[in-house]
Amino acid sequence: MEILNALVALSNFVLIPAIAYGSQLALGALGVTLIYGILRFSNFAHGDTMAFGAMITVLVTWWMQSHGISLGPLPTALLALPFGILGCMALVLVTDRAVYRFYREQKAKPVILVIVSMGVMFIMNGLVRFVIGPNDQNFADGTRFLISARDFKKMTGLDEGLAIKTTQALTVVVAVICVALLFWFLNRTRTGKSMRAYSDNEDLALLSGINPERVVMYTWLIVAALATTAGVLYGLDKSFKPFVYFQLLLPIFASAIVGGLGSPLGAIAGGFVIAFSEVTVTYAWKKVLGYLAPEGMSPDGLVQLLSTDYKFAVSFVILLIVLLFKPTGLFKGKAV
Amino acid sequence: MSDNPYQDGRGNKDASITNTKGMGTMTPAHRKSGPTTKVDGGPFLIGDTMTGGYGKGPDILHDCTIAVNPGEIAVIVGPNGAGKSTAMKAVFGMLDVRSGSVRLDGEDITRLTPQDRVVKGMGFVPQTNNIFTSMTVEENLEMGAFIRRDDIRETMEQVYDLFPILREKRYQAAGELSGGQRQQVAVGRALMTKPKVLMLDEPTAGVSPIVMDELFDRIIEVSRTGLPILMVEQNAKQALAIADKGYVLVQGRNAFTGTGKELLEDPEVRKSFLGG
Matching InterPro entries, A to Z (chain A) (predicted)? Predict the structure, then answer.
């Protein structure tokens, strides 16, 4: 019984939140890695792209809620998500046309594009806060729990409850669908293959008749879809606050680099590595250890290795450790 | 190139923020295609008295003429720095041709971009980085046929028949193949567009003599199908031996022109380029 209780507590406070958070990071890191692989620079504006897509979704969700449109037990945001994706696509295409294309025509070095993306980041950041304000916005509705702690206790008779939020389950399901679609697209379709070809060898892609502008456009569209989805899922799971998305850039970059920049598989693995390390290091293990430790030896303190304020530090320590031993990331990416 | 501040590579080496692998280096002479005009007569593909250089730089080619007809292999040879590859690039539209013209199949294509020349039927195999290393052999061939919308399976079978080893390795990443096999992938990729003319930039660079002989055999085989082949070669002797037409370039000018056999027998050419 004690072991089961420990296991349930662990799942409730570590495993399930980490899986949900990991899926969100993985979706975000996929976008970063795609831009890195195909447009060849690290897009610092990614966090704010996520925020913009999520903001559109939030606005459409509110509009739908005010008109009584809902999805029943599922959050209305799911219905608004396609609109958010479209809005985000429009934003990145306009940005690309207005900003990035100029530098592409100049054949600017990637490092210049990195700095340019930082400028774009500040503009997007301001835009989002201008439209929706800097505060926390709540837009989650529908059934809150798939299984609530009380039901679980009643069902199993354990002391510990296991709660699975609808948004957590939803996050994992949507993430799996997105990733499957993305891999199918990149490996099976003509356009997807042309994107990989362009990433591999730009000159030869040009000689093969692949239109670079088209490849770039498809990349932005996919990145917008991934970023919005990641942003909405994160917002549903926690809450929507523009500044948090800006900060989210750090673990997302850590995920992409840990997994190996330019490798989609690596981005997913990296997302989970970072999420699990963040959650386990900042979790107070008192409860779980209390069940496992022999009688009278249960810890007095919280057994929390680091305060949650330091969670971003954790991603970077992991990043450093991985890069020290495997400079190309877990999956062989392009970074050296 | 260094006059453009955007191309200053300072700080560009941090691979955790910039990805320079596979970055485009091509500098086409025209960013947008100009008009083409119909011309009558002349060889199938000809770079006619071309003079020009890269960007705003000095002239590298001086009244250089290169031509090839169906069923022929034309080879460009010459000492290092003679402008062999440059002449080929001029034909392909990567060099600003300031006077002279490039004509393909009765059409003046001097003002087309390289991409549009591919559409017009030029198959170009660069000297280096001529395959997609991270993609499988089959995907490489598929990408070669990217501009085609019809069924490519037949062409792919033809390429596999020409290079049987590629059929065996079709699901392997092209980057894992040996040097000779990579060149076969590169030529196969160019053949997938069903080009009207095939241009090879030093196809035997960096492969062993045995592989080189085999590659030459394959090139002859391709040419027997009636496809004109224009080739730049370092191994002048072997290349001239299979050439119907040879062009010896020196400092961007036509020094000697003739059939492969004539050039091989020419005492002047032998003395200066073929080592006696």
Answer: ABC_transp_permease, BCAA_transport_permease
Between residues 121 and 180 of chain A, which touch chain B (CB distance below 8 Å)? none
- Supply the ipTM of this predicted assembly: 0.89
A41–B19 CB contact, under 8 Å: yes
SS3 B102: strand
Average pLDDT rounded to a whole number, residues B249-269:
90
Domains of chain A (ranges; CATH) run: 2-325 (1.10.3470)
CATH of residue B88: 3.40.50.300
Answer positive or negative: Cα dihedral of B22, B23, B27, B33: positive
Residue among A62, A58, A39, A38 nearest A50 (CA): A58
The pTM is what? Answer: 0.91
Range of the domain at B90: 34-121+199-206+229-276
Average pLDDT over residues B53-64: 88
Do the domain assignments include residue B111?
A: yes
Contacts with A106 from chain B: Cβ below 8 Å? 4, 6-7
CB pairs < 8 Å spanning A and B: 133
Specify if B194 maps to a domain: no
**Which of A105, A187, A203, A218 has the highest number of chain B CBs within 10 A, making it the mutation to test binding with B?**
A203
* B241 part of a folded domain: yes
Burial of A324 (0-12, 13-18, 19+ CB in 10 A): exposed
